[in-house]
Amino acid sequence: MKLSEVVKAMDKTELLYLKDSYAKTFQGRVLRVEFEKKKNVYLVLDKTIFHPKGGGQPTDKGRISNQNCEVNVKKALYVGGVVVHWGRLLQGDIREGLVFGEIDWERRHLYMRRHTAGHLLDHCLTALTGRPVETTESWLEKPCYVGYAGSPPSTNYLERAEELANEMISKGAAVTIENISHTKLLEVAPHAPNIYRLPVLETYRIVTIEGCTPIPCAGTHLNNIGEIGRLTVEKIEECGSDYRVFYDVQ
Questions:
Q1: Which single residue of 78, 150, 205, 227 could bond 222 by disulfide (Cβ 3.0 to 4.6 Å)?
Q2: Confidence of residue 200 (pLDDT cuts 50, 70, 90)
Q3: Max alpha carbon distance in the chain (Å)?
Q4: Where in the chain is the domain with CATH 3.30.980.10?
Q5: Burial 1-34 (b: 16+ CB within 10 A, else e)
Q6: 40: helix, coil or strand?
Q7: The domain at 108-249 falls in which architecture?
Q8: Helix/strand/coil for 234
């Protein structure tokens, strides 16, 4: 089934995860139901806490249910401002109307830790090399990595970046979020790691680790870097003219 047909004429989904990354459950309204085969189903809701695959962050998983049905949500997809939940009907009959949603919190929290740690790694590499890094890509599933433009730093820099990151994590620092205009973005974050990859938008969601460069990002993050635990740099891999730093959290 074409997702363009599933989202046709639908209003944009309210993205609850942008307001509260820690929300584990929510109540929403099913606006459209499209079956694929007998039990596989596409659902469009008016709002959701399910983060779709995108921006280097894998999809959330979980379930959507009410007293009449239960759907195992295997992935969420973002199409033209609409989040489509795809899964398997486990029992009952799913129809338009009120439902409850619940994400796999252990999975989500791991991505939040890795995502926040990735931004911290950006900061530490910039601080130690003396020049702003430019990110090219990222992935929060295992193996987790951040891609950077240019030649890789020495192993010594990576070891020092890991040490600096863990020193900052041990002290803790608040992570704040705000929405700003494009004009203000160029004022407050001219050296953001992903500044050259951004589309031109009216507003940007800015994530700032206290003491670090603000970064435009629509993913889910921790409220404090102390929640990361420990960051471990695992290896570096050259990719043509760029490189990837593989890391994880413990």
A1: 227
A2: confident
A3: 59
A4: 108-249
A5: eebeebbeebeebebbbeeebeeeebebebebbb
A6: strand
A7: 2-Layer Sandwich (3.30)
A8: strand
Q: Which two tokens stand for residue 134?
A: 């430019």
Q: What is the pLDDT of residues 128-157, one digit of tens each?
A: 999 999 999 999 999 999 999 999 999 999
Asked if residue 131 lies in contact with residue 123, where contact means CB atoms within 8 angstroms, the answer is no
CATH classification of 3-103, choosing from 1.10.3720.10, 2.40.110.10, 3.30.230.70, 2.40.30.130?
2.40.30.130
Instruction: Summarize pLDDT for 160-176 with one digit per residue, the tens.
Output: 999 999 999 999 999 99
Ranges in the chain annotated CATH 2.40.30.130: 3-103
Q: Position of tokens 């670090």? A: 212
Q: How is 178-209 classified by DSSP, letter by letter?
A: EEEEHHHHHHH-TT-TTGGGPPP-SEEEEEEE
Is pLDDT at 22 greater than 80 in this prediction?
yes
Contacts of 202 (CB under 8 A, 6+ apart): 181, 182
Inform me whether the pLDDT recorded for 198 exceeds 80.
Answer: yes
Tell me the torsion sign for CA atoms 55, 199, 86, 67.
Answer: positive
- Strand partners for 28: 99
- Residue 37: the pLDDT is 83
